[in-house]
Amino acid sequence: MTDSITEQRLVGGPRPDLDLTQAEWQSSTQGVGGVQIAFVEGYIAMRNRHSPEIPALIFTPAEWRAFVLDAREGEFDLT
């Protein structure tokens, strides 16, 4: 199950021409959650490790930084 170039979605913009078939997906060091990320050609790809066939989200470095900072501040805490 690999992502094709046509299945990728860039958050907030056009699709980059990335091939994720050889991406080195990383999971949390704590082993919790289902999110994996990969750094590919200057972009950050994020996918669900339980459903890797679902298209990955693609972030620019600026978008990724904003996402991480907001997550640290509890922006996405739904509890």
From TrEMBL:
Organism lineage: Bacteria, Bacillati, Actinomycetota, Actinomycetes, Kitasatosporales
The protein's name: DUF397 domain-containing protein
Classification via InterPro entries: DUF397 (IPR007278)
Domain DUF397: 24-72
Region: Disordered, residue numbers: 1-20
Domain of life: Bacteria
